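Before the break, one more example. Copy the sequence into your notebook; we will annotate it together after we see the structure.
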Amino acid sequence: MKNYTESLILDDWRRIWAAYQKHLTLFILALAVDTVSTIYFMTSSGPEQEFHPLVRMAAFAYGPIAGPVLAAAYKLIAALIVVLYWHKLAAPILTTAALFYLFAAFYNYFAVELYLNGLMPWLPF
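Here is what the structure looks like once it is written out:
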């Protein structure tokens, strides 16, 4: 029974990979770029400035390098669950998430200085 179940699960993942290979690859690459940029950002500015609560909590618990890596692994698992259960919406969800991760990576590398030095002093709180 165990081999049959494992065979079904493996067949499902092969079918999903074949159907959404481009979207999953884009998502994984964008997630990796965002993770590296988050590590860069956190080693220079600290985890206090992170917007994503999961990444911030992981960075406080495990440090500015291991925290974002563990949070990225959690995000990847969540994305795979989405792909597994919502086949029809997998492509737009993965593409949208990849675009958000690419924007976040751009923000971490380039716009964070503008935000911290340009906008923060002007905010009333």
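The CA atoms of residues 19 and 87 lie 9 Å apart. The chain has one domain: 22-118. Try to locate both features in your own notes.
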